Every structure is written in C-alpha cells, then in structure tokens.
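Let us begin with a simple case.
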Amino acid sequence: MTPRTLHRGSRAFSPSGLRAVCVAGDEAGARHLETWELTEAGPRRRLRITLDQDLPLTQCVALDDGRALLSWHEPGGVQHIDLFDLTGGRRSLGPCPTPLRLLPGLDLPGWIATAVAYGADDHSTVFRVGDDEPWLTPVVRLPGRLGGAAAVGPCLAVTAVVDGTPTPLRIDPAALESDRVTRLTGDGSGAGVGHVLLSRAGRVLLALDTGAGLRLGVTTGTVVRLLDGLGTPDSTVTPLTLDPTGGLLAASVNRGARSELALYDVESGAIRQVATPPGVVGPEAAWTHRGLWLAYTGPTRPTVFGWVRPGESELRSAPAQAGRHPARLERLPGAKGSLEAVVYGPDWRAGAPVVIVLHGGPDRHWTLAFDSLFQLFADAGLAVIAPNQRGSTGYGREHADAIRGAWGGPDLADIRALRAYVDETRGPDAPRPAVYGSSYGAFLALLAAAADPDGWSGCVAVAPFSSVPALYADAYRPTRNLIDRLVGHGDVDDVLGPRDLLRLAGLIRTRVFLLHGRLDETIPVAHARALAHRLIDAGHGHVTYREPADRGHTALTALAGAPQPREITDFLTRPDARRGASVGQENRPPLAAMAHN
C-alpha cells in the first residue's frame, strides 16, 4: 500500500497563481517535491519527485512554466538552490554565497525567482535569480531586515526598516537606478508595516501595527485609507491575497484553535464569510480567474491546496484520509478561567489513558491542523488533551502576555489546575494522566512533573532546556532573540522557586522519557544530557534517554515504523503507568557526551 502523506510544507504559488509547489512527507519517512496545476476542476498533481535525503530548512518557488526551485541546507549550514525541469530533472544552480530567502520571480526577462539576503552591515540585498550564469545578480540594497514581501508582475513590494520604523517600499527593477525604489507613505500615525500585498491592478494593501492591534489599509499613490470591520479583540486577522482587480481581500480570521476564511470588499467594507470546514487556513494564497487558492489543513486532512470557485462561498478541498481520527474542541478549567483544548481519541472522562500535550514556542497554540503524532497516540487508545494555556497565542493579547517575564508561572498554574480537574473527574481508580511537551513545552512538562510529583503517570520531554538563563547563555542568536522578544527573562516568586530544572530535578518522581536530537541548533543537546544525569544522580528510578544522531530540533516525527514515536507511545500506554506502579532505571548518557555542541 502506498504510504499516506503526512504533511506538505514549504508551499508556494507561482506568480500567475496557476501552479504550486511543495515538499511532502509520507508515513514511510520519504520526502517528495510535488508540483501542482491549479485547474477549474481543482488541483492536479503533475510531478512527484522523491528526494534522496531529508533536506532541512527547505524553501520552494513555483514557476509559471511548471518548473520549480528548491532551496535546501546541507549539514553544516551551506545553502543550495536546485532547479527542477518539467520531467523532474534536477540541476544545481550552485551554493549560495550568503543565506537567502526566496520569493516568487517577476515578470521580467530571465527572472525566475527573487532572493533576499540580510548582511552583517544591517542592510538587505535583493537579488535576481536566473537559470543562466550568473544565476544570482544584485538589484538593490535596502536598510535593515526585510519583512513582508509580495511579487506581482514586474514589481516587488517589501517592508524595510527606515528611520527605525518598518516602512513599505515598492521596487521596480526595470526603472533607472534613481527611480528603482519608491517609498509608500504610512498612515500618518507612525504605525509599523508588518505585511504588504500587491494586486495586478496596482493596488497595495498594508497590514499596520498601530499599537492597538492590526489595522488594514489600502494605498494608491501616497494616500492610505484604513479599513475597519475584520478583526475583533479575541481574534487575529491574516491578510492572504487580493483578487486580480484589487477590490477583494481574502483573509483568514483566526479564533483560538480554528480559522475561517473571509472575503472583504475594500471599497464598501462588506464582509462575506466562506464556508470553511473545521481546520486551519493559509497563510499561502493566490487569486486568479480560476478562483481563490490557498493552503488548508484539518484534523483528518494533511495540508492540501483548497480552492474557492469564482462566485462561490465554499472552500473545497481533498477528501479526508480514511481511518484518521477527528478532533474536537473543549473548554476545560485553568487556574484563572477556562482554557480551550484540542482533544483526540476516546473520551478522556472514561478509563482510557490520558496524555496532556504541551506546545512549544511559547508564542504558539494548538490548532485543528492535522497532527500525525496525535493520530498515532489516538491509534494506540490514548486520549489526547492539547490545551492552550495562558501564554498561548490566538486568544487576545492579555492571554498571550500573561507569561511575559514569568515563563513557567501562569502557564504552569493552568496545567496544574487542568491535571487536577482531569484526575478528579476520572476518579481515584483511573490512571493518572501523563504529560508530554516539546521544546518550551518540554520545559513546562518537566516543571509540571516537579510541581506535582505524585500527579503524573509519566513525563515525556522532547528537546527540553534546563532554564531560561542557561538557554540564553548556550543558544544561537535566533533563540536568544526569541527570548528577548518574548521577555523570557525574569522568574516567578512562589513556593516552587526559580524555574531551574537542574535544581528541581530531585522533586520529580514520575517516569521520565527524554529525547533530544544531536543536531539541534535551537536548544543545545547538552541540556537534555545534563537533565538526564541530574535525574539519575538524584536517585530517580526510571529515566529513558534517547539522542538520535541524525535529528535536529524537530527530533520526533510520527512516521510508520519509526522507533522513537512507537517507543514513546508504548511508554505512555504500558501498564506501569497506573497508580502505584514501580519503576526502574534505564540508560544513562555517557559523561563524555556532556560537552556543549
């Protein structure tokens, strides 16, 4: 039987919006480059090319003639760009002289893609990518790091930091050097521009951060008119694309764990809702005479190219995969109010084993997107509860900002309250819940295991860190930037004390499973090694440690037959997870492996 697709990432539409490309992964662990034609009758896959290795950090560009570009990084970080022809033939354009972000090409001779590089001099360079030598040609140099970007016809619109403020710029590579860049006026309030869209009719749409939430504005020439009516305090709006005339804006309206599709009339302000199955929309989209195209995923549908036919108000997509578990949303108690949770598998109120799954970030949230790990857990009879505790995005600024300067504070309180509610509801004879987390969620899961030593049947931590100060000292710059941006510095003043897992390890009594990829460039693997040694030295009776040599930060992928997800599933479901079970020590990382990567 052909392995089923689990995900489609690195998605991109061609400049005309009539073709698409992505990198797909299947249950057997294979990776494929897929090219698609977007027809009046729906998406039609044209090529499926098996890639000979697991390529990290991929980017794709779809060309209007059916060809595709694939950017990938080899171990050690060198970036390569390959060109695939209409038959699947592959040609290397060459290694990149500097890290490049790829964008669609422009309607200009020899311009198959656009690339942007950010240099050490705090300037960005825009390049033309061609299929002949020289394949990379600089076009213009701009101040700061470029944010949102859109390529339509012969022009490119970007946001750049000008005088300390994100500012929209229009780039016309065919113009003379002195006229090549035009500054688009902001709204006069000093608002930064985080996103910019272009229509083929020349209309520009800006997403403005006014300090009071997202506002949308359209500009013609130097005049910006703000739009109202799309967002609410408990939702976020992501502009996706404009129709060919620039008169309609497609936007995803995200409310908690699900998103909906809305069409906004730029002139009248009228909003038309598009019937959308429970799931997640976007952010990639294109709008052509054949309809509106976008990425869509739901609990039983790995990401597909969905479409809205001209004149219709219904999102069409590929059918659900047979045998997949649906998801449901529930409101469950936190420490200070209810929390929304995504729930899979059997009714957690009955006797099935339960796992409370914590997301990473922390600036993320669980959604109704397809999740292969949740499917695997549900296959094994686990009831999955994935809460969006305080600190999660998608529920307004107050909910997200609750943990600023207090990582492991209000969010930990919510998880403890949820665990207590689940235990109380299920009764004294039911198995205690287990806790699972990845990245920041792994840190939070281990904190929960320390805070309630007898409250959990097991704890799985994938790519954990021991403390925020230790991570800040050890990590690469992007991770330190994230900690600064999310105000991860600071600590919580309560009975548990500083959130340092090396200090708290002696409190943890439940079984622990640690998994950390040796190639992780986000959280150094030394953190998991140190935690394993500290747990064992503190006399912990059962610590399982796994360190895949060929994996990075996303060390766990739920592939059919892969050892790590199966082992974790067995860990969460086996009989000694029940109350009163005894535990025994397992493998200890070698001391020689404790040096930082």
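The second case is a distinct protein. As before, the sequence precedes its structure tokens.
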Amino acid sequence: MPIHQPQQRSSGSSERPGVPQAEAALVEHYPRLVRLAYLVLPPALGRHRRVLAAHASVQRALPGTGTAPEVPAPARVPAQTRGASPGPAPQDGVSSAYAWMRLRVLRTALAHERRPRWWPGRLPAPAALRPSLPAVWGLRLFPRAGGAAELALDQELSTVSAAVRAAFALRLLEELDEPEAQALLARADARDPASAVRAARRLGAGDRAAAEALLRSGEFDPCVLQTRPSDLLRRRHRMRVVAGVAALCVVAGGVVALAEEGSAVRLPDAGSTPAPALDPAALLRTAAQEWADTSRVDFTAWPARGGRSDDRALLGRALRAWGRTPEGTAVSTTPGALAVPPTQPPRLLYAGEVDGAAVVLFHDGGVRVVRYAEPLSGTGAPALDFARTDDADVTTGAAVVVSRSGNRARFLLAPWISQSTTRDLLRPDTPARALKVGADGVTAAVPRPSPAGGCDSWPVMQLRSSERIVEKHAFLVTDLGDLAPVHLTFTPKPGGGAPARQPREATGGPALLSWARTACSLRALGGTGVRAVNNWDFAEQRLPEGGAPAQWVCTRADTWQGPGRVLVQFLGPDPSTAAPATVVGDQRDTALCSRFGQHVLGGTHWKAPSGRWYVLAAGSRAVDRIQATGAVRTSASGTTLAVRAPRDAPVALTARLREGGSLTAVR
C-alpha cells in the first residue's frame, strides 16, 4: 500500500479555471487526455477520423480568454496500486484544471454518439460537425497495430456504448473508483452512468492489470501514429475540381484568404530521397575486424554478415520498402525513432534467412537500426521496424533482434561478443547455460519474458566482451519488445562514510539477488524505448517488531530519447529469493536516481507479523531527517522512519538533506 499526499477526493471540478491553468493542464497531460478521448469516441468513425476527433476534442476543450477565478481545491490524484504503472498524475497547481479539462473532453467525446433519431446514421452528431483542427490532407493516420490481445479488446470495446468505454477508461487509466467514475460520467451528461459503470466491470476478461496494460499500449495511443497516403486517384480528381473552382473564383474577382492555425511539417518521401540512399551498390560495409581497431565500439563497427548479404535483389526490395512503404507493410517504431526514408546510404549489418523469413538489418547514420523482413513463402506482407540507437556502446550496441516467434527470439550479436549464455533472473542460484551462436552471429532461440499474465521466469542473456577491447567484462541484457535489448545494471548501497557508488554490471551475487525480486516490474517498461535499467539499493531498514532487514530499491529506466522513469520498490523480508518486491512509487520524466538526481525518498504501509500496521519510509544516504504529516505526525533523524498508523491512513512524507534542501516521497 503506497504513501500518498492527502488529497481532496474529487472526480472533477465544477469551477472554471483560469486560461493559464487550463492551458498548463492541457499541455502537460495532452497525451493522457487524447488517449481518453480516443477510447471514448465511436470505433465506427474509423481509426483516421477517430485520431483526428480525439485531438480536436482535447484542443477544443481549452476555455475562452476571459478571466476566471483559480480553483483552490486540488483534484484527487489516483493512489498508486501495487505492481501497477499508472500514468503521471496531475501535479500541484494544475490538478483542478486537469479535472475540469477532463470533464470537457469527456462531454465532447460522448457527444459523438448522441444524435437525433432523424439524423442520418452515417453522419456524426451535430456537436461534432463544427470545423476543427487538426486537419490532415493527403494522409491517413492511425496508431501502431497491436497484437491479438489488443485487437480482441478493441473489438470488445466496439460492442458497447461510449459511456461504458468511458467508465472502463476512467477506472483503469484515471484510477477512479466506481462512485467517482459514475459521478464524473453523470456530470459529463452520459446516459445511465450507473449501468455504464456496472457494464465496464465485465470488460477485459476480468483481468484488470492485463487490461490496463493493453489500454496503455500503442494500439490505443493516438499520439504515436503511422501514416499512409489516402486514395491517390480520388484525391487527384478532387484537386482538379478544386483547381477549376478556384480558377472561376479568380476570374470573378473573388479571392478568399484562409487563415491557418499552427505550422505545417513536410514529411520526406521516396521522391525526395537521393537515389544513392536506395541503391544496394552504395550500401556502407564495415571490414570484418575493424571493431578491434577502433575507439568507437558501436553499430558503426559491425561488419555485414548473413548468407544473403550480397543478394542485390533482396537488398533492393528492403531499401525500396524503406523509401516508399508499400501498402500492407507492417511498420513499428520505437518511441523517438522516425519512420522516414534514409538521406544517405545506410550501413548493412545483416542479410540472411531466419525462421522462414528473409531479414535485412541496416544502421542509419548513427541514429537508427532498421529491420526489414519478408516471408520466404506464402503471401504474407513484409515488415519494417525502426529503433533509435544513437550513442550506443559496448553493451547497448551488443545485440539486435532478428526474429521473434511466439515466446522466443533470435539475436544478432555484436562481433566483439566472445561468449554468450542465458540465465533466469528469478533463479539467481542457477548457473547460466551456454547459448549457441551461428557462424553468422545469430543466436539460437532465446526464451522471452512473458509480457502479461504470470511472472514465473525472466530470461536474460549474459554476454562477455572480447578481451581485445575490454578484459573480464560480462553483462546482462533482456528483451523488452524493442529491436535492441535492454542493458541491466546494479548500484549497491554505499558503506558508512563511503562515497556514492556508480552503476556496475549486474552479474555478481548481490546484483542477481536484487534483480530476482524486482525483475517482474520490468513488464511495465515493455515497448517504451528503454535503453538501460539500473537497480539502486539506496537504503536498508530494520523493521519494527523483531528488526528484520528490508531493502529499498530505486529502479531507473533510461530511454533512448533521454527521459527516464523510476520505480521505488520495497523488498520486505521473505524466505524466497524471488519473492516480488512491492512497487510503492512510480515517477516518469525525472532525473531521480541518476547522477543528476542523487537523492530519493520512498514510503509505504507495512503489516507486521503481529497484524499491526506501520508507515515505513527510507531515504538515500544524504537524508538527515524524515517527517510524516497527515493522519500521523512524527519525525525521525537519519535515513529511515517507522510509525504505527492505520492501514489506509493518508500520510505525507518529506525529508531534509544534510547539506540543505528537502525531498518528497516518490508516489
């Protein structure tokens, strides 16, 4: 049970905030509001119109420019749930504005299904007919395609009303309880909110955690989009008609000036791609042994490998698909990677046959790795995958996925990997097992962590670098769904008076024991463009009623884009070395637990063996005093605190640093 600041429980605000507060809430929580609108809007609109309508619903929610009093009462910030990974909660100063904006977005999205009985069924509701931005010409937009589970949930949502979809989203994404969701729906003019909330219980096959993970996936994210051209022949015909009408208007002497909002961004296409960039003969190729004679050990040092690296026809098809994506091609992108054509000849990393497909891997100018795959037989469509890999190094540039099939994957290893093994993080005492690697650098099939459901194992690869570049260097990587696996590290707690320690490879005993209890929390990071994850044992605490030791861990995920996310986890005493830790704090886009944020404070409720409940808190080495306010008021010197408190007592935790400054607990 997490610690959270005492907040006024409110599903929305009836008072109108000032324009600056509303704009701040919209900008800060724009992706969250757009996702909510997208889920509520009718699937019958089609994915393109639904994406535009979601963005328009949020952008039209901004109030007018008239002044209005600020709203002092903050909206409820959803409490952290065990093992969950909710979206960022509204912060102080804009939380009431966020609740008010959320209400307006809900009203607009729900209005799409409210039309008079006489209204033509193919037309949107009257409230949705107003011209609005954004408007897109010549392109079709749609979110990234998910898997079978996402498709099944989308089909299930399409069979219920907008009010039920809204209740489902409010319960899982906004983490409102049923009375709060029902009250908010009533204020948003939903039809029969009580029935909608009851119907929402039956969605998602009863697995709340899995359904929440699906709703947060790219399938339902209208801010991460793929593009395709619209009907080109019809568009050409319409443009000719428009040109003719415009010419008549000019002859008549009437010219209408249209003001556009925003700015236009021109996307590169194959027509603007220089010819050498798509010429197989111009592909860059690195010499086989260059990796051992260069100070830049990254993807630029990979030689071209694979049995079809000289197949001009295959390489040409891959480059043409990259330059002008054919209709039906499945495209996926890691967050931050642009699915645009190359501007210069890319570097060939691999071309060969793996698991029934011809696979080509390119490296594009130090920024991206691109994977092209086409089936060797049948009529299946090709696939293109884009991953961001700038500033890769010995560990983060050590492997790339070449094939995924079911719950297994094959990797192409870097040429400097001299030894490869696999191990299960949940079984730290089990020795690593040898992993076979072909002459072309492709591994045997490696088990993948389960993205959903139970967490009874967590496979990782333990790789060792060649002594030609570094001595005795082994490290762990794991597959989180992107092209490049994630590098796992560990930072031990400093000893008394010792300076802060730096992250180290997670191959030693203490590191493996730490990861055995926290590995399952990595599921929350799947497919989010994570580059590396570090476990930092920032505190140890002797628990009340016996003094058993407990560990506090800050798990920090760094993405290829730069922003990081931290999970604060509590490792209570347990006889099992793989007993899962409790996630007590989750913060996104933060420098916490990095070299730019070296101080952290965490807190939780804990039940002693006697049945009594306590509030526990712990801070990093620079914490001098911890204070609790709210349902209990007390303080303790040092880096830990324990105080008796009711199970659900709201308690706010703050800490004072020895050299000045203060901290609040990560929620």
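The mean pLDDT is 81. The first strand starts at residue 139 and ends at 143.
Keep these points in mind for the review questions at the end of the chapter.
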